[in-house]
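= Tokenised fold =
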Amino acid sequence: MVRGNIRGGRTGARVGMRGTFTKKTSFIPRHPFDLNVIEHSVHFPRVASNPAPDDTALLNALTKRNQDLTPTDKEQQALNNLLNKVTTVLDNLVVAPGDFDKCQLEEVRQVGSYKKGTMRTGKNIADVVVIFKTIPTKESIEALSKKVEELLKESMKTEVISKTEMITVQITEKGFDIFNWQARVCILIATVPPNIRKVENPEMQKHLVNSLSAIRHIRFFEENSNSSVKVLIRILRDIATRFEAFSVMNPWMIELLANFAILSNANRQALSINQAFRRVFQLLASGLFLPGSSGLLDPCENVPVRVHTCLTLEQQDNLCMTAQTLLRVLKHGGYKVILGIDKKDNLITEMSVFDGVVISPLKLAYEPQSDAEKQNTDDDMDTDNLDDSME
């Protein structure tokens, strides 16, 4: 799949108001060209056997970068201590709420990067989903946060607490956070599925649905991922912080992309981390997350949903363009710049030289529609609907 002009418009041809109309063809998503798949395909036989490239330097760089991004023992211990205290308090409220009747709790589940083992240094955050039996309201969430804070401080009375370990509770749009200077635990509120439709606030309803989705994501991750996938996720999330086009991918998109790159292969064998790293850029550069691509289906949804459809057309094109540039950089030995080991500003927007090869920046292919073009498109769609009704 090649990036091209993806300006919106009609896909059918009109012969005239009194003539015949050609109905729109059915949309059939296609998987982009994948070198890893054709390697074992009878339709693309090799005419010569080239030796495999020596990826020792890249593999060592990926291993070293993963070590640099992995949280230190001190960070993990600080987060683990706070998380254990918070989950203990919440579990007790589930089993024995006592006189607390502002809400009823069904279950407490750990989710997010800490639970998955993909947390990065400097991001000392753990996520916990608290499922309500009752319908969540702002008042009940605030009451729960105050109760948790009260019980935490009561349980820590006998401990010698330093200033860095003093806890603070803060209400957020998704629930509330409990944090100190060393770590943070984000409490995400959810409710049992029958209650979701009864929530009147659409924004809160959205957060409740996302919290339940996080539980399904953790189940899928635990059943389908391995240590190499965790390493690749950590590296890709770091890359997303340094390249704006990659930052539009949410954590779930990155996790599915890493899982696919390593485990979805024609020979059913997991790829090494260096092979999967290259494959990620090959897939994105060939249009995995472009309109018309089959992309990656969300395995945790009941209906088929391509995860990249949450991105705008401009974001999809920019992501593909950036991946194409970075793939050229990677091909000519510039992996240290991509990984952030070597610093180089404006890699995507300015000309650069790697291994004696000049790499020029690409241009976006997507052209947003003008108001007049949008109106014409709407008129065409109305005409199509009229034609369908006439038939």
